[in-house]
Amino acid sequence: MATPGDAALPMEPPAPSHNIALFFHGFFKVVAVVWYWICTIVSNSFIINFVVCIVLLALDFWTTKNITGRYLVGLRWWNEANDTGSAWRFEMLPEGTRTVLPREKRLFWTAMMAATGHWILATVIAVFGLSSYIIVSIMGLLFSGSNLWGYFKCSREAQADLKGYINNTSNSLMQGAIKQQLNQAVNRV
């Protein structure tokens, strides 16, 4: 407890929450997925179903790429095209520019991976003939996969996390394989 003679330390204001950006980050993903699975119940027209789903996927792609990536995790990516070809550009906010809230970061990455995982699964299901909307699932995979890849390339932290996960997993697998070989050797003796 502070005494009257203590100088008050300046308090840093809390980082602003971006609830609207977070809502739309999930909203367009969920609506596109739900529409993909129920569109044949709503309408028998392939063209209507296709157009609605592609528009929802495009809204999700644009919102994620241009708005929620900046607000929720401080990352941005884009592609520059010119006469000599095209180049991908990746940008991360400098340290201290803005505080990224852990909850927003976690929800951003979870939604990105879940959407991409869903579209991978939907494409596999469509390939095996259980859905006639294979082109929609491929477009969903391209849209969500390119956003996931672009933001992954922007984030040094995400790359470090993946490297750590791969190292831990490979170490665990190697230790397990070594233990198994030792147990087999002991059992043979």
UniProtKB/TrEMBL annotation:
Provide the protein name.
Golgi apparatus membrane protein TVP23
Q: What function is annotated for this protein?
A: Golgi membrane protein involved in vesicular trafficking.
InterPro entries, from UniProt? TVP23-like
Keyword terms of this UniProt record: Golgi apparatus, Membrane, Transmembrane, Transmembrane helix
Q: Mention one GO biological process in which this protein takes part, according to its record.
A: vesicle-mediated transport
Q: Which residues cross the membrane?
A: 20-38, 44-62
Q: Which family does it belong to?
A: Belongs to the TVP23 family.
UniProt subcellular location: Golgi apparatus membrane; Membrane
Coiled-coil residue spans: none
User: Which cellular component appears as one GO term in the record?
Assistant: Golgi membrane
What domain of life is recorded for the organism? Eukaryota
The membrane topology term of the UniProt record is:
Multi-pass membrane protein
Specify the species. Astrephomene gubernaculifera
